[in-house]
Input
Amino acid sequence: MTPELHAKLTEWRRHLHAHPELSLQEKATAAFVQDKLAELGIPFEAGIGGHGIVATLTRGHARSRVGLRADMDALPITEDTGLPYASTTSGVMHACGHDGHTASLLGAAALLAADSSWSGTVDFIFQPAEEGFGGSRAMVAAGLFDRFPMERVFGFHNWPGLAAGTIAVHDGVVMASGGRITITIEGHAGHAGMPHLTRDPVVAAGHLIVALQSITSRSVDPLDTAVLSLCTIEGGTAPNQIAGRVTIRGTLRYHREAVKEIILEGIERTCAGIATSFGVKVTPEIVWGVGVVINTPAEAGLARIAADKVQAELRRDLAPSMAGEDFAHYLRQRPGAFVWIGNGELRHGAELHGPRYDFNDAILPVASSWMAEVAKTALASN
Output
């Protein structure tokens, strides 16, 4: 990558960082991407599954076709970086690096547009709503693989704590599946000085939170991987009234479908027990996310070959993450691989989804070059 292109991508990335948009609201981001694709002379179709965009390049006579994907949405987090290009939108920031993913994919498009050495078709997928709002599912439902019949699909996520520019490729499981859980506890409100006339959902909630932790520690095989994190609790409006309702929200994650069933049965059993013990009604509701991200063997091999071609350090020894990624939905439709590209040193508060996180612009050349190279490698392999 030339210094000029690196500088341009850095400028684009920082513009996106300063103007983040939440899931399903990526209108200006999509317009920015379309403007840059037009500047690069690359044709595209917009409005796919919401604000999704697919740009397409074709060279030569080969019929092989491959997809490259980046996500575009930001998070409802208040930025605390103090950077000159920090978010200008109150309470919203690119805390997961999707600004960098988008800039990297634009960079890959620029590299491939200027490269005449390959033959086939490359589709560049700019996806909205990755952060729990089903962006990949919406694009597939809108006919992504019918309208753009790619045979394989590849993507990456930046990874704080992994040396900058190092590429990690997993054999098999990369990231977890899971769901969002909401538990409603309905009791009987009343005077805090006369608790015997109430059914206290707050006390029940306290016992429930502790009891649910025994599912991962006592019901799931220690050699399996599972997470059940209860992250918010809401209930009551006055300090002298026992509330009538409490709501608990959280997330659960797993790498195997069998573990999902164990967790689900444990949640239902524990909620029923707490309801009986405290005379309250406990209702768990789970909205299941997309599946586990699992690299297919041949495509993981192509990802490693591409890493070697761009002369990046390659890691094959990292454990899968319990974070989720809706790239999994693409991998249910097509073979592919999802890799991690090191973002550099892990600093306190600058983890993924942290208020001091920032994508490392120094890795843009590696990220763009790897995406371009894995597309060329996949096309040549056919």
User: Anything to note?
Assistant: The chain has two domains: 3-172+295-381, 176-288. The chain has a mean pLDDT of 97. The longest strand covers residues 173-186.
